[in-house]
Amino acid sequence: MKDMLVHLYNLDFADKMPSKDVRIVRVLSPNSDKVIAFVEAHFSKGWAAEVKAAVYRSQPTCFVALHENKIVGFAAYDATAKGYFGPIGVDQTLRGKNIGKALILHTLEAMYHDGYGYAIIGGAGDNVFEFYRKTVQAYDIEKPGNVYDRLIRG
C-alpha cells in the first residue's frame, strides 16, 4: 500500500452529484451510530474506528451518500491524521453509479475550504490506484512508509 497525493487547487468540484436519487450530506452527530454501523457491516472495524474519529468532531469530517433515505456510501477526512482523505466506501450493489466520485469530490472540496492545498490518500491499495488517478488526478508518493505503519496489529 502506498500513499497518494491530490492537488486540490486544480480540481473541478462542479461534477459531484451522481444522480437525482442520491444525495451527499455531511454527517450530523445524531446520525453517527448509523454511519459507524454501516461502515462496520459493509467494510471493516478498522474503517469504522476511523469514521468514528471523523463523526465525533464538533464539525464532522465525514460525508454520506443517501439513496431512498438509506446510507449507501461514506467518505471521511482528517480521521487518522490531519490532511488525510479516507476511508471511502460504497455499498457493493450500487458501485459504478458515480457515488464514489461524488463522495470524494464533496470531501476534497470540504478539505479545500478548510484551507488544505493538498490531500494525502493514505495507504491506498493497488485495486484503487486507477480510481484515484482518474477521478482526482492523484499521483503516487514514491517514498516508503505511511501513517498506517504505526497500527498495532494482532
UniProtKB/TrEMBL annotation:
CDD domains: NAT_SF. SUPFAM superfamilies: Acyl-CoA N-acyltransferases (Nat) (SSF55729). One of its GO terms (molecular function) is acyltransferase activity, transferring groups other than amino-acyl groups. Residues 22-154 form the N-acetyltransferase domain. This is N-acetyltransferase domain-containing protein. It comes from the Bacteria. InterPro entries: Acyl_CoA_acyltransferase (IPR016181), GNAT_dom (IPR000182). PROSITE patterns: GNAT. It holds the Pfam family Acetyltransf_1.
